Amino acid sequence: MSETISKAGLEFNVDRMHPIHRRWWGVAAKLLGAIAIGGVLMAIWYWGIEPYEARMEEALAELGPWAPVIFIGFFILTTPWFFPESVLAVAAGAIFGIWWGLLWVAVAGTATAVGMYWLGHTVLRDSVERRLSKHPKIRAIDQAASEKGLELVFLLRLAPINYTVLNWLLGVSRVRFKTFLLSCIGMFPGNLATVYVGYAARHTADLATRVKTHQGLAPGDSIVHEITIYGGLVVSLLVSIIVARVALKAIRQSGGPALPE
User: Fold this and answer.
1) Three-class DSSP category at 11
2) 227 contacts 129 by C-beta, under 8 angstroms
3) What is the pTM of this model?
4) Is residue 201 a part of any domain in this protein?
5) What is the pLDDT of residues 144-197, one digit of tens each?
6) N or C of the chain: less Cβ packing under 10 Å?
7) What is the largest CA-CA distance in the chain?
8) Which domain holds residue 164?
9) Domain-embedded: residue 204
């Protein structure tokens, strides 16, 4: 039987969500979809970017410490206007590796979020509010986030909601800046998964090149290491999906807004 929760002035149907968000086979289907997307990104890297890899590395070497600065600047200038954050996160993993890439994406994502919060509270407030008012479900998120504080805002960060949309929405909401800033930690699982895809794509392209030229594995590499890399990719994608699923369930149980499916 369908159960409806009424809280914070919102009605939420517990069974509204599609079974793909609630069943084990739904998680498996989304994981396979994520792996397929990762495969496409790897193919794009191998055939579209890898031929220019040497020149890219030379350019990055010449930039030195300015490379992450330029990356962060580009991220801040483009993602508020809906340039896909995932594309830049994948690029960071390919260019800087897992941990440095994750660090620069986290810094860039947080700086971007803070800038959007400031713009949403000042010069762009009226414009953003006019656009959001056309989407009742999004306005419901605004109302709930304003009333329920850090717990719900953090869960919204973990849920599969576009970060740019969420940043603009929270930027014009009544959510306090401290709450907004702390909630940015919730972007970490998604960032890790996309950065890891970029790292794995770069590694796969390099490995394919070595195999094609009959060089074999790189010095110090091993089959165990290769299994660890691709196993880590699967785990990071799976964790990201499970975290999003748990966040959706927690939002549902807390009487939060009905998120777009």
Assistant:
1) strand
2) no
3) 0.73
4) yes
5) 766 667 888 888 888 878 888 889 888 888 888 998 999 999 999 889 988 998
6) N
7) 66
8) 18-253
9) yes
